[in-house]
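thoughts on my protein:
***
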Amino acid sequence: MEDKTRLRDAATIILSRAGNDGPEVLMGQRGKGAAFMPGKFVFPGGALDPGDLDVPMARPLAADCARRLIVPGAPDPVALAAAAIRELWEETGLALAEPGPWPAAPAPDWAALAGLGLLPSAAPLRYVFRAITPPGRPRRFDARFFLADAGAVAGNPEDFSRAQDELSHLQWVPLLRARSFDLPFITEVVLAEIAPLIGRAGPPESVPFFDNSGPVPTFRRLQ
């Protein structure tokens, strides 16, 4: 039987756009019966799957982004980018992708995207945050957070018709209102960190890292 409490690699996408009341981010609500963060509003994301390990990209990750993701024992940066893009696709029906043929038959989790003639693209992703879930939680993740502009979505960023049922109440949330939602603590921290980055080009100066892998929580910045 799979140990659900083991630390798993994960990836999350913070999709942003300009709105009438300033920058907006895409969020959805987890089910009330979910084992991890029930009822909370979160960004699309989830654990790395085996099918994410060999996914072709229309365009690669930026070099600085890939460099910061390379640490001993971590998955390949392209696999983490693929996981983030897949989770966005599954949970919202939005594709960070470009038209193009797959060089080989895709893994089952990618078949629907490939069926639309789309290849995932890692180029829009900026690595902006990392957090490891504290011990004692029913699920634990080593999560990498990516920021991406909604202009890179293939199609209408308001069309959630292809979303699966993992998140409900999908909506574009103005940053000014986001903290009025029922958010996990780490999501509040991420929002504060990424607010100055939205609408700006280029990588952040450093990547905040909440490290709960050991007995003492540690906060540091990845250069």
About this structure: The longest strand covers residues 7-19.
